[in-house]
Write a structure and sequence with these properties.
There is one protein chain. The protein has seven helices and no strands. It is about 80% helix and about 0% strand. The protein is globular and about 50 Å long.
């Protein structure tokens, strides 16, 4: 087994732990989420999926911020299980769509011109959706799962096309887990309303 395959397996295993913690809405997802990006930065750089490098640098910062947000609620006497999962307020929809489109229009040409990305627009779309997804997750909005389903699906295809099969398989698994995560959070949301 090649060194890169070992790194892919370690990253994917940590990623499964992260997604499982997210599925459970556990605060422990944040510290795991700070470690995980380091592996994906390395893998993504070598596989020329440059958008995922940028996404994972952002993830480190976003996980620190998200952890702080959830800790803030805990200090207010609200445990992670008491912090409600909610729908994103309608006022954010247009704003987040504009941010996503703006990021794609900024990142895709940059990936093409400066990083010679083989799939700059798909990479830019997945990157932009992931940025928005992390913000939605930190706010504990149910819609974060839509972002993970779509971005994981795009990344799985990009890794398969670049012959990083292990990463492609695991991003396919992440896509399936994100679908399960959506339904689990939806169920948790209904329970908290009782």
């Amino acid at each position: 087994m090649e060194w890169m395959q070992v790194i892919e397996i370690v990253a994917a295993t940590i990623g499964l732990i992260y997604v499982w913690l997210e599925l459970k809405a556990s605060m422990w997802l944040w510290p795991v989420g700070i470690v995980l990006p380091l592996f994906w930065i390395y893998i993504s750089w070598h596989s020329e999926v440059y958008g995922n490098v940028l996404v994972n640098i952002y993830y480190i910062v976003a996980c620190i911020w998200g952890w702080r947000e959830w800790i803030k609620h805990r200090k207010e006497g609200i445990t992670e299980s008491q912090q409600p999962i909610t729908f994103m307020p309608k006022k954010y929809r247009v704003w987040l769509m504009a941010v996503t489109v703006g990021l794609v229009l900024l990142l895709a040409p940059a990936y093409s011109r400066f990083m010679d990305s083989p799939f700059p627009y798909w990479d830019g779309i997945a990157t932009s959706i992931s940025f928005v997804g992390m913000w939605l997750l930190a706010k504990k909005y149910l819609e974060n799962w839509y972002c993970w389903i779509l971005s994981n699906l795009i990344y799985s295809i990009l890794y398969f096309v670049q012959s990083f099969t292990i990463s492609g398989v695991f991003f396919t698994i992440y896509t399936a887990i994100a679908i399960a995560g959506y339904f689990n959070w939806r169920r948790m949301m209904q329970v908290q309303q009782l």
